[in-house]
Amino acid sequence: MKGPDPGMILTTVGLDGNNCTYLVAYGLVESENYSSWIWFLKHLGDDLDFTTNSNFRFITDRQKGVLPAIAKLFPCAENRFCIRHIHENMKRKWRGKEFKDCLWKCAATTTVQQFNLAMEELKKLNNDAYEWLEAICNACNLCETLNSKLVKGRDKPIIICLEFIREYIMKKLVIVQKTIDKCSGPLTLIATKTLEKIKGEAAEYRAVFCGNGKYQVTGGEGVDQCVVDITQRTCTCYKWEVTGIPC
Question: Do 173 and 78 have their domain in common?
Fold first, then answer.
């Protein structure tokens, strides 16, 4: 909050079917600390039917109190860290496009082998940066996109600020509905565009049926090879699981 009333706006953001940000929950608290996150995450868990045994992932900016609060309420949840904040911290010691590209390459990988190769590239560039990143690996970023939209409401009194956020959500849902109305097929616009691109690339691959709904898919002169399970909707490159779209 930037106006007469002190405080912090806590948010939880996800992705919708069109790969756009979707605000799940928000709340205004006195400060960002352990007790505030406990209160916020407890209500979030109640709304989404999370339990202590729920297995899901939180991506955070590692701010005060959030990690111990998650560990307390959802001990089975996994923690991942926001790539934007990792890059901001990295720039304090290692600046330049080469370091940024290496960082994003590491974050974009979907298999252990790809990740290790990307990390080796960083190690060759700078061993200290490699060791620093290895200690905090894995990341992504969604909340910063939302935060940029809420700037104009953060200098208002509390009730007006909350109304600003509510109206923003209402307008966003209308925009999403208009996007849905434009879809003529079974998928969203971005998913359709992505799938069409993938279909073009798939023409260069060869699929061999292995039985039980599985296929050996080979490309790149046999170098790129994966197992695709149509029944389980999985691929050994893990992109299908991550994006929801067959690679």
Answer: yes
Q: Are 82 and 59 in contact (CB under 8 A)?
A: yes
Provide the 3-class DSSP secondary structure of residue 96. Answer: coil
Side-chain half-sphere exposure of 3, counting CA atoms within 13 A? 13
Range of the domain at 103: 97-134
Q: How many domains does the chain have?
A: 3
As a whole number of angstroms, the distance between CA 99 and CA 105 comes to: 10
DSSP 139: B
Q: Is residue 62 part of a domain?
A: yes
Report the predicted TM-score, pTM, of the whole model to 2 decimal places. Answer: 0.71
Based on the fold, state whether residues 61 and 130 are members of the same structural domain. Answer: no
Residuewise pLDDT in 10s, the chain (247 residues):
887 778 889 989 888 888 888 889 999 999 889 999 999 999 999 999 988 888 888 888 777 788 899 999 999 988 888 788 888 888 999 989 999 999 999 888 888 888 889 999 999 999 999 988 887 764 445 676 777 788 888 888 889 989 999 999 999 899 888 888 888 888 888 888 888 998 888 888 999 999 999 999 998 776 788 999 999 999 998 888 887 888 8
Q: Which structure tokens are listed for 50?
A: 């999370």
Task: Enter the tokens of residue 79.
Answer: 């923690």
127 and 14 assigned to the same domain: no
Distance of CA 19 to the CA centre of its chain: 10
